[in-house]
Amino acid sequence: MSATRAFLIAAALALALAACRGPTGLPTESPLQLLPSRATPVPDALDHASHDLAAAALAGGPEDVRARLAELDASDRERRDAEGPSGLPAYGQHLADATQPDPIAYRRATAALLERDDVEPVLRKQLEDEVEDDPLRLADLRIFESRKARLARDLNPFSEAIGKSALTAALMPVRVAQAAIGVLVAEHMDDPISLQERQALSYWKEFVETQPDAPESRALLGRIEELQSEWFQMKRKRSAHAAEQALEAGEDEVALVLADRALHYAPEDGKASRLREEAERRVEARRADLARSLAAPRETPPDAGDPAADALAVALLDPHGDVAASAAPLAERGAAAPLASEARFARALAEGEQGRESEMWEQFAVVADADPATHPMARHARNLEDSAEQNPYEAFLRARREGREEQARVVLLGGLAHGARDRQLPRALEWLLEAPSLVGTLGGIPTRLIETMASKPPPGPAVPAARYLARYPQGEHAAELREWLVDHEEASGNRVRAYELAREGGGFDKDRMADLERDAAEQALEVTKKQKRRDLRLAMLEDIASRFPDTDSGRRANQLVRDELEGASAQSIRISRGFLIENPRVAGPAGLGLRPELLDGDRSNGELHPDGVKLIGGRTLEFSLVAESGKEKDPPRLMRQTVSAERLARLVSLLEETAQHNALLDPLAEVKPDAQRDLFFERARLGVSDSGEEDDDPTAASNYAFVGVREKYGLVRSRESILPVDLVIQGSFPDLGLGAFPRLRPPKETPDAVLYR
User: Fold this and answer.
1) Model confidence over 663-718: pLDDT tens digits?
2) What is the pTM (predicted TM-score) of this model?
3) Residue 470 exposed, middle or buried by CB count within 10 Å (0-12, 13-18, 19+)
4) Hey, where are the domains in the chain?
């Protein structure tokens, strides 16, 4: 054969092979490989021994359990030489240990089991959790953490004061003195029983209640009584201090309740008794004033039979009566005349109903300035003036003024904007303790000013402004407040709300309305894309397309509606490429049976897209493959394939098992609950996923995603140092502090710490 002919034959073969794939390595055949055939497993001696041990644990006695466990160990030794260890003896020993009635003996046996080398990682993690769940061990650990936390609190301020004085040694004595004062104040404010000690008290009580006959229980009674006394002391201290603060704030009823609570923990406490007496005196005085204000005079009023008063009464009762004209004669008689304040009040109401808001509030101000003792309507007028519901414009002005004053205080004084911190000391001494921090506070004014300018506007004035527009849409101040509210909502990031307000008013120019409409459509589309339920997402997209038809976001929403309808599926359970790479058994023949070349990183022979594989309902899978361009950022090429019931059952079983296995070994690989996912998996395992009985309700669809830990959290995981200290580099421009210093790391709070605060 000539060389030219051989070359042509080789080229023809290469072209024929290339024709089996897409233009850039995209597979044209199935992404799945054939499942390997499996013979029906026959129980061997190890299986029979495991069965006998389980039966003995459920129905036999301790001797029977030990005998069956010995048989299991012997069967495993025979199998180990030929096929390697099975790991079943460790599970069998754990099962035998679980039959012990004594929890203490069970935990000791579990700890001994951890010393074996044949314990699988998942079982080892379970055993470690059970050993750690020992009330006495947890109590000792909490006591140790309490001491460590207190030591860190007392040592770290001195370490920081010395370390920050590396460049300013002259300030070291001042900083050390401040640290000493801070430690003394912290000791003064410290609770009699720390958070960790409260947790330890709970563990000791649990042990004594569940194991009253244990030798440790008798030794714990004294410690429990001591800590319980400190617990009551802390509750009394907190309740008394809170009652004192409530009295200072004028909340007399709250102070009375808190003082009673303090007396409940310490019935003879003098401070709590004095607080209760003062709170009770104030409450009784307020109730007496209220009773006097509700009493009606029995004598005949001196103005009975006055024609002007009769005319005003008739006008008030007549829906078409002229109240303003009828009230004028009485209102003009003089401030001391009978019914003068009532007449002015009625005339103010009439002017308000006629749309003259300014005149109404001017009349109310005149009535409110009168003496309530001689003018009964003065109190009502003052209440209307102060009411945020009745006088929303004044409430808006007041809230805006208070917001500006609050921002000014924060910029100027920082953490001291509301006074010295409460240290349960005399107020003058608390301010004296804050004096050293004034230099740093004043030096931080530029930083706080920049932060205030960059932050969102305070939300306080928006509430009365919106209330005014709802109550007086055509009021005197409606245009002013609507323009302010539009600017406020836009600055706060509520672009949809800003557009709706502007559209309601109709007083904005076309360019401003176009900008508001564009921004509102963009925000609405961003929010809609985050909606997981398909039916709600479709409804929201259709609303955006109809409300904003002339914007790019509106047209994009219209396109997304069509895409949603075309690609709708009963389920959308995704298995990412990262998860398949981290868990090759799921992708391999025992699970999905994915072709290996789709995960080898070679784009020339086809590659799975990071989106991975989706279970979209029934027995149909959707594969996302890297686009022809070879770029992962481009939309993937989608391929759907209906698989056998056996393959689907294998996949979901191994997928769920692997996810649970990973979650036991790695907290970052947690499996979040999803009822619809679990229901679909159960139907797939039973082989009825394609029975046509799927729920068409959109709420029955699952959008769960199995994502790899590295894909979810990145390539680098944070690791906690084994050293008990952290090296901190810290600087502060206001007080010229710069340095490096060690800081003793305080213990982390447990997840249930919130229950013991």
Assistant:
1) 888 877 888 888 888 998 999 988 887 755 555 555 667 888 999 888 877 755 55
2) 0.65
3) exposed
4) 46-133, 308-386, 435-563, 570-700
